Amino acid sequence: QVQLVESGGGLVQAGGSLRLSCAASGRTFSRYAMGWFRQAPGKERELIAAIIWSEGITHYEDSVKGRFIITRDNANNTVYLQMSSLKPEDTAVYYCAARMTLFRSSWPTKPNEYRYWGQGTQVTVSS
Question: CA distances (Å), 26 to each of 2, 22, 31, 44, 89, in order?
C-alpha cells in the first residue's frame, strides 16, 4: 500500500502563495497518478490538479489554471502543489491522493477513483 502525509497548509492573505507537500511511502513503485483534491464545508470534494507520476503529464481544474502548479520530486518521493494568487474561495481542506491504475480517456476526477489518501491539510485564505 501507499501512505501519504500532507503538510504546508496554513493561513495566507489573498494574492499570496503557499506550497503544499505530500510525502509518499510504502509501495510507491506501483503508483500511477497523484491528485490534489480540496473540500470546503458544504461542498463536494473536487479534483484540482493531477499528475501522471512516471511521465509528469499534468491536469488542472479550470479554476486553478495559471495559478496552481503540481510537481513531483522523485528523489524525495513527494508531490507538491504550488499555489499562487490565492483567493478566499480557495479556502478548503486539501488532500493528496494516489491512483494505482492507468486510465485511457478522460482524467479521473472522482474521489472513489483514487485508492489512497492523506489526512488533509487546511488552507485558509483571508481577504
Answer: 5, 13, 10, 28, 34
Tell me which residue has cell 500532507. 6
**Rounded Cα gap, residues 78 and 30, in angstroms:** 15
Please give the Cα distance from 57 to 12 (Å, whole number).
Answer: 29
Residue 16: which H helix or E strand, with range?
none
Task: Answer for the pair 127, 16: CB distance below 8 angstroms, yes or no.
Answer: no
In residues, how long is the chain?
A: 127
At 38-88, the pLDDT tens digits run 999 999 999 999 999 989 999 999 999 999 999 999 889 999 999 999 999
C-alpha dist (Å) from residue 31 to 55, 100, 115: 12, 5, 10
